[in-house]
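Hi F.,

I've been meaning to write this up properly since the lab meeting, where we talked about keeping a consistent format for the predictions we share between groups. The idea is simple: the sequence comes first, exactly as it goes in, then the structure tokens exactly as they come out, then a line or two of notes. No screenshots and no reformatting. I'm using this chain as the first example so we have something concrete to point to.
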Amino acid sequence: MVEQLVSRTDTAYQRWLASVTDDVTAEGVSVYCLESLPERNTTYDIGEWLTGYLMIAQEGDRGFFLRCDGGGPVFSADLGGLGEVDLTVIAPGFEVWLGSGFALPADPERDLPPTADVYVDGIPVDRVQLLARARKLLGADWPFGAFRGLLAAQPFLAARSARLYVLLRDLEDAPELRPHLLYATDHGLSTVWPTDSPVSR
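Output, unedited:
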């Protein structure tokens, strides 16, 4: 079964796999050799949770995966909560990841509470489309007819008890919203996305 999956991964990975006889550890990541793949993928039931993916490496409770469709990025996910929606791209392809010495992208360093009320602030009143993007990102249901009033009332409560680390991850793909989403602290509002100098309002 694993051999079939390996044969459908990208060729750079297959070449690398053929060149090693033991697991390779770099940057705290253990990248599996061919002999280790069946046991590691069976232990975590990867075939059940991520059909069509192969777990190729691990760092603690985080697994690293390739899609078995001939190419594509290297993904990571928490092994405690696997599902395709939980995958994060860590490299555009195996060859790039290999070339980096299996380096992991730096996570924005942030000590966030697990949940907090989230506010929208600082969106110019004529940027209705930006507020629409915030609405979609937050899964909010503000009526479109209320947008101008919301923009005039900033900062306004946008989401109660939002999961901040999920929001932080979502903001990776929405840089235009990073300065405008803030969470409530004991000292005012701070941006969810880390900035060079934390914003407090």
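Notes:
Residues 2-99 form a domain with the SMI1/KNR4-like fold (CATH 3.40.1580.10).
The beta strands are 24-26, 29-31, 53-59, 62-67, 74-78, 88-91, 115-120, 156-163, 181-185, 188-191.

If this format works for you, I'll send the rest the same way.

G.
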